[in-house]
Amino acid sequence: MSNGRPTPAPRRPRVGPLVAGLAVLIPLGYAGWLAWDATGGGSASEDDAKRPAAGAAPTHPAARAGARPLAGKTVVIDPGHNPRNRDHTAEIARAVQAGKGHKACDTTGTSTDAGYAEAAFTLDVAHRMRSLLEERGAKVTLTHDADRPFGPCVDERARIGNAAHADAAVSVHADGSAVGNRGFHVILPAAVKQDGADTSSIVGPSRVLGEGIAGEFERATGSRRANYIAAGSGLNVRDDLGGLNLSTVPKVFIECGNMRDPKDAAELIEAKWRQKAARGIADGITDFLAR
Ligand SMILES: [Zn+2]
Questions:
Q1: Exposed/middle/buried for 24, CB within 10 Å: 0-12, 13-18, 19+?
Q2: In the annotation, is 255 catalytic?
Protein backbone atom coordinates (compact mmCIF):
# COMPACT_ATOMS: atom_id res chain seq x y z
CA MET A 1 0.00 0.00 0.00
CA SER A 2 1.11 3.53 -0.65
CA ASN A 3 0.75 6.27 1.89
CA GLY A 4 2.58 9.01 0.05
CA ARG A 5 5.55 10.72 1.52
CA PRO A 6 4.99 11.07 5.27
CA THR A 7 5.63 14.32 7.06
CA PRO A 8 8.91 14.13 8.95
CA ALA A 9 8.61 14.32 12.71
CA PRO A 10 10.72 16.93 14.48
CA ARG A 11 14.08 15.64 15.55
CA ARG A 12 14.72 15.31 19.22
CA PRO A 13 17.03 18.02 20.46
CA ARG A 14 20.58 17.06 21.23
CA VAL A 15 21.11 17.13 24.95
CA GLY A 16 24.02 17.05 27.32
CA PRO A 17 26.90 19.37 28.06
CA LEU A 18 29.73 19.81 25.62
CA VAL A 19 33.10 19.93 27.30
CA ALA A 20 35.93 21.70 25.52
CA GLY A 21 37.56 18.48 24.34
CA LEU A 22 34.39 17.15 22.85
CA ALA A 23 33.73 20.44 21.17
CA VAL A 24 36.97 19.89 19.25
CA LEU A 25 36.52 16.18 18.64
CA ILE A 26 32.96 16.27 17.39
CA PRO A 27 33.55 18.58 14.42
CA LEU A 28 36.58 16.49 13.46
CA GLY A 29 34.47 13.36 13.63
CA TYR A 30 31.76 14.87 11.48
CA ALA A 31 34.33 16.13 9.01
CA GLY A 32 35.59 12.59 8.53
CA TRP A 33 32.10 11.23 8.21
CA LEU A 34 31.11 13.86 5.68
CA ALA A 35 34.27 13.29 3.64
CA TRP A 36 33.45 9.60 3.46
CA ASP A 37 29.83 10.42 2.77
CA ALA A 38 30.86 12.45 -0.25
CA THR A 39 32.69 9.52 -1.79
CA GLY A 40 30.29 6.79 -0.79
CA GLY A 41 26.92 8.50 -0.97
CA GLY A 42 24.50 8.70 -3.83
CA SER A 43 21.02 9.94 -4.49
CA ALA A 44 18.17 7.93 -5.92
CA SER A 45 18.23 10.09 -9.03
CA GLU A 46 21.69 9.03 -10.13
CA ASP A 47 22.29 6.54 -12.90
CA ASP A 48 23.26 3.04 -11.88
CA ALA A 49 26.73 3.63 -13.29
CA LYS A 50 27.26 6.51 -10.91
CA ARG A 51 25.99 4.71 -7.87
CA PRO A 52 28.44 4.03 -5.07
CA ALA A 53 30.51 0.90 -5.18
CA ALA A 54 29.51 0.22 -1.61
CA GLY A 55 32.02 -2.35 -0.51
CA ALA A 56 34.94 -1.68 1.74
CA ALA A 57 33.40 1.31 3.46
CA PRO A 58 34.89 2.07 6.85
CA THR A 59 33.42 1.41 10.23
CA HIS A 60 30.90 3.94 11.45
CA PRO A 61 32.81 7.05 12.57
CA ALA A 62 31.36 6.92 16.05
CA ALA A 63 32.94 3.49 16.49
CA ARG A 64 36.13 4.37 14.61
CA ALA A 65 36.95 6.97 17.25
CA GLY A 66 37.93 4.03 19.43
CA ALA A 67 35.09 4.43 21.86
CA ARG A 68 32.29 1.97 22.13
CA PRO A 69 29.50 4.38 21.17
CA LEU A 70 26.75 1.94 21.99
CA ALA A 71 28.01 0.97 25.46
CA GLY A 72 25.04 0.81 27.80
CA LYS A 73 22.57 0.53 24.92
CA THR A 74 20.35 -2.46 24.25
CA VAL A 75 19.33 -3.41 20.73
CA VAL A 76 16.78 -6.08 19.90
CA ILE A 77 17.03 -7.63 16.44
CA ASP A 78 13.99 -9.50 15.21
CA PRO A 79 14.81 -11.88 12.34
CA GLY A 80 11.53 -12.13 10.43
CA HIS A 81 9.86 -15.56 10.31
CA ASN A 82 11.70 -18.77 11.25
CA PRO A 83 13.28 -21.31 8.91
CA ARG A 84 11.22 -24.04 10.57
CA ASN A 85 7.85 -22.27 10.32
CA ARG A 86 7.16 -24.21 7.13
CA ASP A 87 6.99 -27.41 9.17
CA HIS A 88 4.55 -25.91 11.67
CA THR A 89 1.88 -24.29 9.54
CA ALA A 90 -0.95 -25.14 11.96
CA GLU A 91 0.83 -23.67 14.97
CA ILE A 92 1.79 -20.44 13.23
CA ALA A 93 -1.74 -19.98 11.87
CA ARG A 94 -3.07 -19.52 15.42
CA ALA A 95 -4.56 -16.05 15.85
CA VAL A 96 -2.94 -13.67 18.31
CA GLN A 97 -3.89 -10.19 19.44
CA ALA A 98 -1.96 -7.80 17.22
CA GLY A 99 -3.01 -4.48 18.72
CA LYS A 100 -5.56 -3.77 16.02
CA GLY A 101 -7.50 -6.93 15.64
CA HIS A 102 -6.02 -10.38 15.41
CA LYS A 103 -3.28 -11.68 13.14
CA ALA A 104 -1.69 -15.04 12.50
CA CYS A 105 0.98 -15.93 15.06
CA ASP A 106 3.60 -15.88 12.32
CA THR A 107 4.01 -16.66 8.62
CA THR A 108 6.49 -18.68 6.60
CA GLY A 109 7.80 -15.66 4.69
CA THR A 110 8.76 -15.60 1.05
CA SER A 111 11.74 -16.96 -0.90
CA THR A 112 13.65 -16.42 -4.13
CA ASP A 113 12.62 -18.43 -7.19
CA ALA A 114 15.62 -20.66 -6.53
CA GLY A 115 14.37 -21.38 -3.01
CA TYR A 116 16.52 -19.15 -0.80
CA ALA A 117 14.14 -18.55 2.09
CA GLU A 118 13.43 -15.16 3.57
CA ALA A 119 13.78 -16.75 7.03
CA ALA A 120 17.35 -17.82 6.21
CA PHE A 121 18.12 -14.35 4.86
CA THR A 122 16.76 -12.55 7.93
CA LEU A 123 18.70 -14.75 10.32
CA ASP A 124 21.95 -14.27 8.40
CA VAL A 125 21.58 -10.48 8.32
CA ALA A 126 20.66 -10.51 12.03
CA HIS A 127 23.86 -12.38 12.88
CA ARG A 128 25.95 -9.90 10.90
CA MET A 129 24.18 -6.97 12.58
CA ARG A 130 24.76 -8.51 16.01
CA SER A 131 28.52 -8.74 15.39
CA LEU A 132 28.74 -5.13 14.27
CA LEU A 133 26.62 -3.77 17.11
CA GLU A 134 28.42 -5.79 19.77
CA GLU A 135 31.76 -4.47 18.47
CA ARG A 136 30.33 -1.01 19.10
CA GLY A 137 29.44 -1.91 22.67
CA ALA A 138 25.73 -2.68 22.45
CA LYS A 139 23.97 -5.45 24.30
CA VAL A 140 22.15 -7.34 21.55
CA THR A 141 19.21 -9.71 21.89
CA LEU A 142 17.68 -11.68 19.04
CA THR A 143 13.99 -12.53 19.29
CA HIS A 144 14.94 -16.00 18.07
CA ASP A 145 17.97 -17.74 16.66
CA ALA A 146 16.32 -20.72 14.96
CA ASP A 147 16.43 -22.19 18.46
CA ARG A 148 12.73 -22.95 18.61
CA PRO A 149 10.54 -25.01 16.31
CA PHE A 150 8.49 -22.06 15.04
CA GLY A 151 7.82 -18.37 15.65
CA PRO A 152 7.95 -16.52 17.98
CA CYS A 153 4.46 -15.17 17.37
CA VAL A 154 4.33 -11.51 16.37
CA ASP A 155 3.02 -10.42 19.78
CA GLU A 156 5.90 -12.17 21.54
CA ARG A 157 8.38 -10.60 19.12
CA ALA A 158 7.17 -7.20 20.33
CA ARG A 159 7.17 -8.24 23.99
CA ILE A 160 10.79 -9.41 23.80
CA GLY A 161 11.85 -5.91 22.80
CA ASN A 162 9.69 -4.37 25.53
CA ALA A 163 10.99 -6.71 28.23
CA ALA A 164 14.58 -5.98 27.21
CA HIS A 165 13.83 -2.24 27.51
CA ALA A 166 15.47 -1.98 24.11
CA ASP A 167 16.76 1.43 23.10
CA ALA A 168 16.03 0.37 19.53
CA ALA A 169 14.43 -2.67 17.91
CA VAL A 170 14.57 -3.64 14.25
CA SER A 171 12.68 -6.41 12.51
CA VAL A 172 14.53 -7.67 9.44
CA HIS A 173 12.61 -8.89 6.37
CA ALA A 174 12.73 -9.20 2.59
CA ASP A 175 9.60 -8.67 0.53
CA GLY A 176 7.70 -10.96 -1.80
CA SER A 177 6.33 -8.64 -4.48
CA ALA A 178 5.94 -8.71 -8.26
CA VAL A 179 8.84 -8.92 -10.72
CA GLY A 180 10.05 -5.41 -11.55
CA ASN A 181 9.24 -4.15 -8.07
CA ARG A 182 12.66 -3.34 -6.70
CA GLY A 183 14.41 -1.75 -3.77
CA PHE A 184 14.14 -1.53 0.01
CA HIS A 185 11.72 0.16 2.34
CA VAL A 186 11.46 0.80 6.05
CA ILE A 187 8.12 0.33 7.82
CA LEU A 188 7.23 2.76 10.59
CA PRO A 189 4.56 2.34 13.27
CA ALA A 190 1.33 4.32 12.84
CA ALA A 191 -0.52 5.87 15.76
CA VAL A 192 -2.54 2.96 17.18
CA LYS A 193 -4.39 2.99 20.48
CA GLN A 194 -6.70 0.05 20.88
CA ASP A 195 -6.79 -3.59 21.93
CA GLY A 196 -3.97 -3.12 24.42
CA ALA A 197 -1.73 -1.25 21.97
CA ASP A 198 -0.55 2.32 22.41
CA THR A 199 2.16 3.47 20.03
CA SER A 200 1.88 7.16 20.94
CA SER A 201 5.27 7.23 22.68
CA ILE A 202 7.15 5.41 19.91
CA VAL A 203 5.81 6.93 16.69
CA GLY A 204 8.19 9.90 16.81
CA PRO A 205 11.43 8.16 17.81
CA SER A 206 10.68 5.22 15.52
CA ARG A 207 10.49 7.62 12.58
CA VAL A 208 13.87 9.09 13.48
CA LEU A 209 15.28 5.56 13.75
CA GLY A 210 13.69 4.54 10.45
CA GLU A 211 14.87 7.59 8.55
CA GLY A 212 18.40 6.97 9.80
CA ILE A 213 18.33 3.33 8.79
CA ALA A 214 16.94 4.17 5.34
CA GLY A 215 19.72 6.67 4.70
CA GLU A 216 22.50 4.40 5.92
CA PHE A 217 21.10 1.34 4.13
CA GLU A 218 20.99 3.30 0.90
CA ARG A 219 24.57 4.44 1.44
CA ALA A 220 25.93 1.02 2.42
CA THR A 221 24.23 -1.10 -0.25
CA GLY A 222 23.72 1.34 -3.10
CA SER A 223 20.13 0.07 -3.27
CA ARG A 224 17.32 2.36 -4.24
CA ARG A 225 14.24 3.11 -2.18
CA ALA A 226 11.43 0.79 -3.27
CA ASN A 227 9.80 1.79 -6.55
CA TYR A 228 6.48 0.13 -5.73
CA ILE A 229 5.39 1.47 -2.36
CA ALA A 230 5.15 4.68 -0.34
CA ALA A 231 5.65 6.85 -3.45
CA GLY A 232 9.33 5.99 -3.59
CA SER A 233 10.06 7.52 -0.19
CA GLY A 234 11.36 4.25 1.27
CA LEU A 235 9.29 4.96 4.40
CA ASN A 236 5.95 3.22 4.77
CA VAL A 237 3.67 3.76 7.78
CA ARG A 238 1.52 0.77 8.77
CA ASP A 239 -1.03 0.09 11.47
CA ASP A 240 -1.56 -3.61 10.81
CA LEU A 241 1.63 -5.15 12.15
CA GLY A 242 1.45 -6.60 15.64
CA GLY A 243 5.21 -6.43 15.94
CA LEU A 244 4.98 -2.63 15.72
CA ASN A 245 1.57 -2.01 17.31
CA LEU A 246 2.52 -3.83 20.50
CA SER A 247 5.97 -2.32 20.84
CA THR A 248 6.65 0.15 23.63
CA VAL A 249 10.22 0.78 22.43
CA PRO A 250 11.34 2.54 19.22
CA LYS A 251 10.96 -0.04 16.49
CA VAL A 252 10.88 -0.35 12.71
CA PHE A 253 10.80 -3.10 10.12
CA ILE A 254 13.06 -3.11 7.09
CA GLU A 255 12.20 -4.93 3.86
CA CYS A 256 15.70 -5.21 2.42
CA GLY A 257 14.65 -5.99 -1.14
CA ASN A 258 12.17 -8.00 -3.19
CA MET A 259 13.03 -11.72 -3.21
CA ARG A 260 10.62 -12.33 -6.12
CA ASP A 261 12.45 -9.95 -8.43
CA PRO A 262 15.43 -11.66 -10.10
CA LYS A 263 17.67 -8.58 -9.96
CA ASP A 264 16.97 -7.92 -6.30
CA ALA A 265 17.26 -11.64 -5.56
CA ALA A 266 20.70 -11.75 -7.16
CA GLU A 267 21.83 -9.28 -4.51
CA LEU A 268 20.00 -10.84 -1.56
CA ILE A 269 21.66 -14.22 -2.11
CA GLU A 270 25.17 -12.72 -1.99
CA ALA A 271 26.91 -12.87 1.39
CA LYS A 272 28.90 -9.74 0.52
CA TRP A 273 25.70 -7.84 -0.17
CA ARG A 274 24.15 -9.07 3.07
CA GLN A 275 27.19 -7.75 4.95
CA LYS A 276 26.61 -4.33 3.38
CA ALA A 277 22.93 -4.54 4.31
CA ALA A 278 23.78 -5.44 7.91
CA ARG A 279 26.26 -2.60 8.10
CA GLY A 280 23.74 -0.12 6.74
CA ILE A 281 21.15 -1.12 9.34
CA ALA A 282 23.73 -1.15 12.14
CA ASP A 283 24.95 2.30 11.08
CA GLY A 284 21.39 3.61 11.15
CA ILE A 285 20.91 2.22 14.65
CA THR A 286 24.24 3.75 15.69
CA ASP A 287 23.21 7.14 14.31
CA PHE A 288 20.03 6.93 16.37
CA LEU A 289 21.61 5.78 19.61
CA ALA A 290 24.94 7.59 19.58
CA ARG A 291 23.53 11.03 18.88
ZN1 LIG B 1 8.86 -11.08 6.08
A1: exposed
A2: yes
